Amino acid sequence: MAHQDPKQEIINRLTRLLVSRSSKVPAGSLDEGTQESRNKTLQFLKERSLPGRRAYIVVFENEQGSEVYFTCYVEEDSQGNWQFRGAAGDGIMGHNPGPVVERAWANLGGGGMPDHFYAGGFVADHEQNVARVRLIAKSGTMVEDKVENGMVLFLSDQHVDLPIQAELYDAAGTLIYNHKVLG
After folding, report:
1. Which of 30, 33, 76, 117 is deepest in the core (most CB within 10 A)?
2. How far apart are CA 143 and CA 63, in angstroms?
3. Phi/psi at 173 (5° precision)
4. Backbone torsions φ then ψ of 110, nearest 5 degrees
5. What domain of life does the UniProt record list for this protein's source (predicted)?
């Protein structure tokens, strides 16, 4: 069932998929359950929005106590209900951090191409002081985000074709490195 709160739609979907029935986050309103139990299980770390569309980076504590990260995407339907449309990720921090590289790197997951693009994930800094990441699609669409707590999140209403290149910049605007991230 879809909800009028986009975060609640994500909570319901992820708990149905990832947690046993005995330890689910309470369904329904965000006001149900204790704040402590909700915060321990699922946290929204970063958000981007466009009219009728939202993307979030969330961390979910699985039953083994490991933190699992997802980039989630929801859309609002014509009745004003939010529908879960996709997620990328499931990386357990410290267990599968992406490619092993010794330079700055954006490890992203996403979807919705070509017209509902979202992507997010972690930036491996390697003491190169990455301040922002720009994505450039084959179609020429560019989106950019500031690195916050090692994460970036993108949402675009422009046409996005694969492949997508990432450009990593320092605070002075100097290009540190670029590489293919999707496609």
Report:
1. 117
2. 35
3. 90, 10
4. -175, -165
5. Bacteria
Map out the domains of the chain as residue ranges: 6-92, 105-182
Q: What is the DSSP string of the chain?
A: --BSSHHHHHHHHHHHHHS-GGGPPPPS-TTSS-HHHHHHHEEEEEEEEETTEEEEEEEEE-TTS-EEEEEEEEEE-TTS-EEEEEEEEEEETTT--SS--SS-EEEEEEE-TTTS-EEEEEEE-TTS-EEEEEEEETTS-EEEEE-BTTEEEEE-SS---S-EEEEEEETT--EEEEEEEE-
What global pTM score does this model have?
A: 0.82
φ/ψ of residue 38, rounded to 5: -65, -45
Is 72 in contact with 55 (CB distance < 8 Å)? yes
By the 8 A CB rule, do 119 and 134 touch? no
| Residue whose C-alpha is closest to residue 10's, from 31, 20, 25 | 25
Q: Which residues have C-beta within 8 Å of that of residue 22, sequence separation ≥ 6?
A: none
Q: List the Cα angle 21/25/30 in 5-degree steps.
A: 145
> Closest by alpha carbon to 4, among 52, 46, 57, 43?
52
User: Per-residue pLDDT tens for 52-104?
Assistant: 999 999 998 777 778 889 999 999 999 999 999 999 986 654 444 455 667 89
CATH number at 105-182 = 2.60.40.10
